[in-house]
UniProtKB/TrEMBL annotation:
Pfam families in the record: LolA (PF03548)
Name of the protein: Outer membrane lipoprotein-sorting protein
Signal peptide: 1-22
Gene3D superfamilies, per the entry: Lipoprotein localisation LolA/LolB/LppX
Amino acid sequence: MRKLFFPLVVLISMIGSTSAQSTKDSKVETVLNGMSERYKSFKSFEADFTYAIESTQEKIKDSQEGNIIVKGEKFRLRIGDQEVFNNMNTVWTYLKGENEVTITDYDPDSGDITPAEVYNMYKKGFKYTFADEAGEADTRLYDVVDLVPEDRNLNYFKVRLVIDKKTKDLKSWKVFEKNGRRFLYTIVKFTPNVAVKDSDFTFDKTKYPKVKIVDLR
């Protein structure tokens, strides 16, 4: 599973399709900064979410439910029959159906979107603009922002964030891949400052009897 957030946690050359805003509009930046500061104020958080993937070209349409716990840049993600643990040194990806865990080194420069980065990824390597405003200017409920990556070699060309205008909560984000796939994450329940231990972000093989270990470090 790509570390998205989730595959996570981005971008494009579609700015020309929106209104004539600056590629780093100060109004958009104010919205993004407000969202970022809100999540930075939490010591940890837990979120239940829905995850949907769709591709008309490949005739793919599927959805699943998931859960994530985040502390700083560490996270534990559960979605479908998959669990991902990241303690900022090592990443464990466990597949329940195969009872197999793959271990890799954490690479902060991989370019992947991680759950811990989705709230801050706009700060480096992205252009951004308003994609839409749900409702009239003074009554809309959400700000819709498109993030466009400056690196054209990434496998996605855009990430669309939907941010609650009042609370600054991130309600959903959608990743647009060049191959036509679309990944949509929608927050269903959000709990800030949950009790969590650092060990929660490390795979404990004693809890997975007879697990097959594939160590790629």
